[in-house]
């Protein structure tokens, strides 16, 4: 790619200490994220999929600089942000936002939702006074399909889907370049999930931001993501354009994941067979190889 990617991570690695001796020295550690590299172009959606515990959320937190990498580098708009802290991160925070799985735990229960949505606007000095802020918040409410008259209510007065809309309004308040969405529909009723996915799509069309979309529902990934990266035990085992990965999955784990996802067509769903896959960690030192343009597979 000749254009500067919006986000580039190189060899991202995160170890967690799982056991310490009497002196507080690490005696066991878990490599939650292992040598992960990928890029996201402006306006692009990269899906990150894999079973629970494969390192998806940790990867998201590293990208957001909510956690420090053990190794590897992170570039945002060409600028290395790996070691940035505090004030150095402020301009990045504005462009890099997050939507969590559970909007209830990410919203302050004692804060009126309009305050929560408007908070980033004040923190970053985007609005000059309270009335400008109210107008901006009302506009954000409309943008995510909420009635602005509800902005003085508290989070518990909303349904799960509405709360996720509030979380999304807060995330888009500063017109970010990238949103990390960590399983943002997993906690919602199935009937609501598609609405929230469509909201993500609409907002991307209007505002042009990129998404790192963490999910385990492959159906949604297929619908929403331009490219997909499959994680297994901390490593990316396959990555490529969504159509291509679904049409021609190369890694055994990708095949197993796809075979486990229900097919919306009932005739084909009847014939679907789940492929078994033993969740063994990829061999140490295995490298990704490009099997088709942009389609990478970890060599077995
Ligand atoms: N703060 C932490 N301390 C210790 N281990 C952690 C911590 N956060 C995550 N882990 C471990 O790292 C691995 C990856 O976790 P996570 O990134 O949450 O996976 P995923 O989001 O794919 O389910 C898991 O084994 C998890 O238990
Ligand atoms: Mg997770």
TrEMBL record:
Cellular component GO terms held in the UniProt record: plasma membrane
Membrane topology: Peripheral membrane protein
Location in or out of the cell: Cell inner membrane
Keywords for this protein: ATP-binding, Nucleotide-binding, Transport
GO molecular function: ATP binding; ATP hydrolysis activity
Domain ABC transporter: start-end pairs: 7-258
Any one Pfam family match given in the protein's UniProt record, by short name: oligo_HPY
Single GO biological process annotation from the record: peptide transport
The keyword Nucleotide-binding appears for this protein: yes
InterPro entries named among the record's database cross-references: AAA+_ATPase, ABC_transp_ATP-bind, ABC_transporter-like_ATP-bd, ABC_transporter-like_CS, Oligopep_ABC_C, P-loop_NTPase
Domain of life: Bacteria
Family matches, as SUPFAM superfamilies: P-loop containing nucleoside triphosphate hydrolases (SSF52540)
Keyword tRNA processing carried by entry: no
Main localisation: membrane
Similarity remark: Belongs to the ABC transporter superfamily.
Protein name: Dipeptide/oligopeptide/nickel ABC transporter ATP-binding protein
């Amino acid at each position: 790619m000749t254009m500067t990617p919006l986000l580039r991570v190189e060899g991202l690695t995160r170890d967690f200490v799982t056991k310490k001796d009497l002196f507080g020295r690490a005696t066991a550690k878990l490599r939650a994220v292992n040598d992960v590299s990928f890029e996201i172009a402006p306006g692009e959606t990269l899906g990150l999929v894999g079973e629970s515990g494969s390192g998806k959320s940790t990867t998201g937190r590293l990208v957001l600089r909510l956690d420090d990498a053990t190794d590897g580098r992170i570039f945002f708009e060409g600028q290395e942000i790996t070691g940035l802290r505090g004030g150095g991160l402020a301009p990045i925070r504005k462009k890099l936002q997050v939507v969590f799985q559970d909007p209830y735990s990410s919203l302050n229960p004692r804060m009126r939702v309009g305050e929560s949505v408007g908070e980033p606007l004040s923190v970053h000095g985007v609005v000059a006074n309270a009335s400008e802020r109210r107008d901006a918040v009302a506009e954000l409410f409309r943008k995510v399909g909420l009635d602005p008259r509800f902005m003085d209510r508290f989070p518990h007065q909303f349904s799960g889907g509405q709360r996720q809309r509030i979380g999304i309004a807060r995330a888009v308040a500063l017109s970010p370049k990238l949103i990390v969405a960590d399983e943002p529909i997993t906690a919602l009723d199935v009937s609501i999930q598609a609405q929230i996915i469509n909201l993500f799509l609409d907002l991307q069309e209007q505002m042009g931001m990129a998404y790192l979309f963490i999910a385990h529902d492959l159906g949604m990934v297929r619908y929403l993501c331009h490219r997909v990266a499959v994680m297994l035990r901390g490593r990316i085992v396959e990555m490529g354009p969504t159509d291509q990965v679904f049409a021609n999955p190369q890694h055994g784990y990708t095949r197993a994941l796809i075979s486990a996802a229900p097919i919306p067509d009932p005739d084909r769903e009847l014939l679907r067979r789940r492929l078994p896959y033993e969740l063994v960690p990829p061999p140490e030192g295995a490298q990704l190889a490009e099997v088709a343009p942009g389609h990478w597979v970890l060599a077995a």
